[in-house]
Amino acid sequence: MGLRVLAVDDSKTMRDMVSFTLRNAGHEVIEAHDGQHAISVLGGGAVDLIITDVNMPNMDGLTLIRNLRSNPSYRSTPILVLTTEADGAKKNEGREAGATGWIVKPFSPEKLLQVVAKVCH
């Protein structure tokens, strides 16, 4: 049984890569182009996993994570950060915001699926 995953990234190319990888592995993917869009797309509905970029217009990934973590519906939903940011301070900020894991772009499909399997066991 596949997972229901929300992929949030302002880059359509990146959303397409993530979606393609996850759909090929049997998962359902919902896409959003920034944090605000992600919140409206979710509408309080359940997902098994959220994958978000950090640097996006309107609402960045860390603000999105804080928002989701303050909502009881998403308090325990795994949230992966997929970003070009490899900086330790940013990772700590992500952890403090409530991120479950961190994947640095560019990523391999295998790596993405390994991390997804690990956080959604």
TrEMBL record:
Keywords: Phosphoprotein. Gene3D superfamilies: 3.40.50.2300. InterPro entries: Bact_response_regulator, CheY-like_superfamily, Sig_transdc_resp-reg_receiver. One of its GO terms (biological process) is phosphorelay signal transduction system. Residues 4-120 form the Response regulatory domain. It comes from the Bacteria. The modification 4-aspartylphosphate is found at residue 53. The keyword Phosphoprotein applies. This is Two-component system chemotaxis response regulator CheY. SUPFAM superfamilies: CheY-like. It comes from Aestuariispira insulae. PANTHER family: CHEMOTAXIS TWO-COMPONENT RESPONSE REGULATOR (PTHR44591:SF25), STRESS RESPONSE REGULATOR PROTEIN 1 (PTHR44591).
